[in-house]
Design a protein that fits this description.
One of its GO terms (molecular function) is methenyltetrahydrofolate cyclohydrolase activity. The chain has 286 residues and is α/β, with parallel strands linked by helices. It is built from 9 helices and 11 strands. The N and C termini lie far apart (58 Å). Bound molecules: 5,10-Methenyltetrahydrofolate.
């Protein structure tokens, strides 16, 4: 089989830089007002802390403010809701990122209903979800889902009429992302743990998105010739290293382009969060 070194890496940094420019132009219209992001974390999960750190770095680099709120793992459901309500109502807070999942004793569903849709930057409220599913772009989509679309747009990869396979049906990536693809006029297949022939469904995709949350579950056997492979997964492998849902190296000579992990979609997710923050602030002040 022909083995080239022709696969193009779709790097997130370039996409993030383009979003930064956009954000700064919008920021300039706010007459010096600097929006503030509230990051809400319950407990000390390493996963949450990594994302929080990444988000804080991104906000700093984009010139945006962050206010961190950290609560103990054993905070009661009632007290957390009380604290959440204060942040939600605070006029000095333009947008909210709540790290998830919350500890099991806190009812996340209730928070989804409580959060002000205008501050719900990661698209967890019913109002934003409905808008995303209705194709109404005034709703905030989950940042990771939107980041996938941003990567494809930044690299001028056409979506219209393309066969897209999304592996994963979560409410944070798979489902909303599938709707964003439909809005771009793609033909979407959603795969999950009960899909009968995952290899076949993936192999015929022109754009393959891995969003299942299982380290290196997809390799070249799942990728069609010249496919564009987008890896949303952020896992830690047995050696403690960050790795995606896709075995990137194995795609060489088969896929035409692929996002690496780290350095792919992850870098774009926090840029989208920043974009949403400035949008939220602009709307609240307009
Ligand atoms: N509402 C919510 N949305 C999330 O998206 C969310 C969450 N809660 N809770 C926690 C998980 C986990 N997660 C991570 C993201 C990046 C890194 C990470 O390590 N990022 C590296 C590199 C990333 C890359 O370049 O691909 C960095 O920022 O330097 C880890 C974990 C997000 N999550």
């Amino acid at each position: 089989m022909e083995r080239g070194t022709t696969m193009e890496a779709l790097k997130g940094a370039a996409v993030s830089a383009a979003i930064k420019e956009q954000v700064q132009n919008r920021l300039a219209e706010l007459d010096g007002y600097i929006p503030t992001l509230a990051i809400i974390r319950v407990g000390e999960k390493p996963d949450d802390i990594s994302y929080e750190k990444g988000a804080m770095k991104k906000m700093a680099s984009f010139g945006l403010n962050v206010q961190s709120y950290t609560f103990p793992e054993d905070i009661s459901d009632a007290l957390f809701k009380e604290e959440f309500a204060k942040i939600n109502a605070d006029k000095a807070i333009d947008g909210i990122l709540m790290l998830r999942p919350l500890p099991k004793h806190i009812c996340e569903k209730d928070i989804e209903k409580m959060i002000d849709p205008a501050k719900d930057l990661d698209g967890i409220s019913p109002e934003n979800i409905a808008k995303v599913f209705a194709g109404d772009s005034t709703g905030f989509a989950p940042c990771t889902a939107e980041a996938v679309i941003e990567v494809l747009k930044a690299y001028n990869i056409p979506m219209q009429g393309k066969r897209v396979t999304v592996v994963g049906r979560s409410m944070v990536v798979g489902k909303p992302l599938s709707m964003l693809f439909v809005k771009e006029n793609a033909t979407v297949t959603i795969c999950h743990t009960r899909t009968a022939d995952l290899k076949a469904e993936c192999s015929r995709a022109e754009i393959l998105v891995a969003a299942a949350g299982r380290a290196r579950m997809l390799d070249s056997a799942y990728a069609g010739k010249d496919a564009v492979v987008i890896d949303v997964g952020i896992n830690v492998d047995e050696n403690g290293r960050l790795c995606g849902d896709v075995d990137y190296e194995s795609l060489e000579g088969i896929a035409s382009m692929a996002t690496p992990v780290p350095g792919g979609v992850g870098a774009v997710t926090t840029a989208v969060l920043a974009k949403h923050l400035v949008q939220a602030a602009a709307r609240a002040r307009g």
